[in-house]
Write a structure and sequence with these properties.
With 290 residues, this protein is α+β, with helices and mostly antiparallel strands. The protein contains 9 helices and 9 strands.
């Protein structure tokens, strides 16, 4: 590991001082660049060519000495935080972020006054941090992260990061079921292709062999997981997954807009744009002569 570089205490090390204090308390931290986004992967680690962490599911850097891999680079190790590449990043950082899931908490990010009003009426009170536009409500416990569970509301926990804006006020409550339920009812963040998929009924008018809810659900869930597990060649993985789903279910009328929306949402979670999703679906449909 690169040896720690001596730290000169000046105005530029303020973020590092905060990060070291948070890390000492068990909170995995990372620097945010201008624009408050994570530092991008270096050329060696581009598109996770280095392997990163196993499927990006645990926080911490790969063998690369740079703060790569966004939330997965978050660490509590002061030896890493004070290596020369990280100190250089802290000097250029605009803010400090942390990995809520790694700290054992979930952040309900309320982005405007309307979202805050909704939370006050529907969620149990907990530790609250004021943000530039709304509030962070912080609960003890972790769950999967989901954006736009309601208008102006995101959930940040596992595999996500949140900006550090101070300890906040109030007592941290246990993560309630009502917050977990929000994630299950979250609307799709990407709409399916504008045109509904139109496919012929099975030959002879017989009943579709795939109409078992369990069979279809298992197929869609496997497709979502295949996309989620992609660590490289995401575009190609999305296309091949769409092609496989259409090959199995596209001609018999099983697929609904809800199923397509789930696939599109999984693709967007890996960084695909709505246009890429629509193009991949159209290309897969064309390849199958549908």
């Amino acid at each position: 590991m690169t040896q720690p570089t001596p730290i000169r205490r000046d105005a530029r090390t303020g973020h590092l001082d905060v990060a070291l204090r948070l890390a000492a308390g068990g909170m995995p931290v990372l620097p945010l660049r201008a624009g408050k986004g994570p530092f991008g992967n270096c050329p060696t680690c581009a598109k996770n060519a280095c392997g990163g962490r196993p499927n990006m599911k645990t926080p911490g850097p790969c063998a690369c000495p740079l703060p790569c891999h966004a939330w997965a680079a978050a660490t509590t190790d002061p030896r890493i935080l004070t290596t020369a590449p990280w100190v250089a990043a802290w000097h250029r950082a605009e803010a400090v972020a942390y990995h809520p899931g790694g700290a054992g908490v979930t952040v309900v990010d309320l982005d405007d006054d309307a979202a805050v009003d909704w939370a006050r009426e529907n969620l149990p009170s907990t530790r609250t941090v004021v943000t530039t536009r709304g509030q962070h409500w912080i609960y003890q416990g972790t769950m999967h992260s989901v954006n736009r569970v309601r208008d102006g509301i995101d959930i940040k926990s596992l595999m996500s990061y949140a900006r550090w804006l101070g300890p906040g006020a109030g007592t941290t409550a246990v993560l309630p079921d009502v917050v977990r339920a929000l994630a299950e009812k979250a609307p799709a963040t990407v709409r399916p292709a504008p045109r509904a998929v139109s496919v012929p009924a099975p030959a002879g008018g017989g009943q579709c062999p795939h109409r078992s809810p369990a069979y279809l659900e298992r197929g869609i869930a496997m497709a979502e997981q295949r996309i989620a597990d992609a660590t490289s060649a995401v575009h190609a993985t999305v296309y091949r997954t769409f092609l496989a789903v259409l090959s199995a279910h596209g001609r018999c009328g099983c697929l609904t807009e809800s199923h397509i929306a789930r696939l599109f949402t999984a693709a967007q979670a890996k960084g695909e744009s709505p246009r890429h999703c629509t193009d991949a679906w159209a290309n897969a449909t064309a390849a199958l002569g549908m």
